Amino acid sequence: MFDLKDLYQEVIVDHNRSPRNFGQMENPDRTLEGFNPLCGDRLTLYVKLQDQQIDEISFDGSGCAISVASASLMTDAMNGKTINEAEEIFENFHILVTSDGEDADLDKLGKLAALAGVREYPTRVKCATLCWHTLHSILEGDDEVISTE
Ligand code: FES
Predict the structure, then answer these.
(1) 117 lines ligand 1 (CB under 6 A)
(2) Who's near 4: CB < 8 A, 6+ residues apart?
(3) Which residue has the higher pLDDT, 40 or 99?
(4) Most exposed residue of 45, 59, 87, 134, measured as fewest CB within 10 angstroms of its CB?
């Protein structure tokens, strides 16, 4: 029988094995590092912006399967979004992984819903949100390393 959890698992495994938008960007407009001191994992995010819109986005660094899959899914979802749209997706994603998720707008999240299962595991929530907090800060123009703690 079709099991949604299996599909979600597949999406995460796929994005961890073959992360999209992975690699350092040449001449980004903004660069920011996210750090999870609990495990030492670090991801760097690169963006090019044009007229308040994300023109290009990529990431590199090392992290666990959840953090890499989350960054891959996030960068995929953010390509071409305006800063306001990106913030709206960030808010929905945050609701999805930190509450019971009922109020999250799944239409806006698409494949990102694959990460809903992490809310059962508080330490994994930090893995999944590392890149998101980094994105939120980079769009605000922050330049300090972002920490999950
Ligand atoms: Fe380090 Fe997940 S264990 S970010």
Answers:
(1) no
(2) none
(3) 40
(4) 87
